[in-house]
Amino acid sequence: MKKTFIKYIKLICSLFPIRKVILFESIPDMEGNSRAVFDEMVKLGLHKKYKLIWLVEDKFIHDGYEVSNVYFDDKPTTILKKIKYCIKYFNAKVKITENACYPKLHRRTVAIHLGHGTAIKDTGSLMHINGAANFALYQSEDVKEITAKLYNLEESRLICFGCPRNDNLLKGNAKTPDENYIVWLPTFRKSVSPNRIDSSYEFPLGIPIFKDLSEVDRLNTILKRHNMKLYIKPHYAADLASWNIMEFSHVKIIQEDFYRKRGLLFYEFLGMSKALITDYSSVYFDYLLIDKPIGITVDDLEQYQEGIGFVYDDFKSTILGEWIENYEDLEEYILGCIHSNIDISYLRERKELFNKFTDSQSSVRVVNFLKEQAEL
Fold first, then answer.
1. Are 73 and 53 in contact (CB under 8 A)?
2. Region 178-187: what's the mean pLDDT?
3. CB atoms < 10 A from the CB of 185, how many?
4. For residue range 82-124, what is the model confidence (pLDDT) as tens digits?
5. 155 pLDDT exceeds 80?
6. How many Å apart are CA 74 and CA 70, to the nearest integer?
7. CA 77 → CA 71, 85, 190, 224, distances in Å?
8. Region for 23 from its dihedrals, namely left if φ exceeds 0, alpha if ψ lies in -120 to 50, beta otherwise
9. Of 189, 35, 21, which Cα lies nearest the Cα of 98?
10. Which residues, in sequence order, are bridge partners of residue 351?
11. Would you say 181 and 274 are in contact if contact means Cβ atoms under 8 Å apart?
12. Which letter, b or e, does each residue of 203-232 get, where b requires 16 or more Cβ atoms within 10 Å of its Cβ?
């Protein structure tokens, strides 16, 4: 009954003319893959022909945005807002998402899901697109089957153009930073909304590796001595109520405003870093592109495997990096980064395996594809 009802709704909606509107969505707002594609469209002057509309958490934050014909609207997070969204945008010409796949009700709307990069976690049905997108992105042939399964999408609907956000990663890598820093991106174990637990492991300070503040203080002293910063950026979905880590002079917790005040997108900021620390995040595959050290914290690997789990049978044989199981490993890794004596040659095979494209033209490929499909 529900499927029949939706079928007729789509049939009726498709009788209306298509509007010259292109929708964008990302988390955080105006970041990631969607932002890279948006910037390429603006560069080509498509905003002069179409309304470019960002769905955001708070549209009033973006008042006074300088690019003409760019607008902001609330993300449809409630039933009422979803109904309002469907009425306002059911006949948009193009829909570009990377997190939430909002309903596609008009048959001539071209909807593309850019995603968050190559998957590591086995998210089950959490990432199912369910007919809300015509196409979805994947990174290489080695992950095509996995991506199709996670999205519940036919492989013929998958397109491989590279990850648009990596254009900014490579752009950042080409810049000379004002300071030396390492970026630490711990994925979330528990999220508040939606309520989700991927690992039952309880960290004393809320983040991996550190057992107490004395270890943070010791690491801060080492970093200060060598004029290196460690910036820890929480995952957007992380429950920060459990984070008990203090901020030190050279160990800092950062949010979006930190790098945006510097006029940077996050992947530009990331590309300028000396090295990366992560765990079970898709950023691993992206960072391979810039040939720099990657440290991987695995102190809760067993609990994570028992929780949400991975799409790979053997995590450690697939996701290669410098294993960090305790504070001593962390200190050794950071000193290796400081002294530039970490061998990363073994990562180059991983880079080629998981990234079909290693250039900075992914946004161009995606926009060219959309111009053809939607006749922009």
1. yes
2. 96
3. 19
4. 899 999 999 999 999 998 888 899 999 999 999 989 999 998 8
5. yes
6. 14
7. 18, 10, 20, 43
8. beta
9. 35
10. none
11. yes
12. bebbbbbbeeeebbeebbeebeeeebbbbb
Asked if pLDDT for residue 157 goes beyond 90, the answer is yes
Angle (CA) 108-51-68 rounded to 5° is 165
**Per-residue pLDDT tens digits for 20-79:** 999 999 999 999 999 999 999 999 999 999 999 999 999 998 888 889 999 999 999 889
Q: How far is CA 131 from CA 37, 121, 135, 142, in A?
A: 22, 22, 10, 24
18 by Cβ neighbours in 10 Å (0-12 / 13-18 / 19+) ranks as middle
| Closest C-alpha to 267, from 164, 177, 168 | 168
Of residues 133, 109, 86, the one with CA closest to residue 21: 109
Reading the block at residue 197, the tokens are: 């637990």
**Is the whole model's pTM more than 0.85, yes or no?**
yes
Dihedral (CA of 319, 234, 271, 98) sign:
positive
> Averaged over 237-258, what is the pLDDT?
86
pLDDT of residue 202: 86
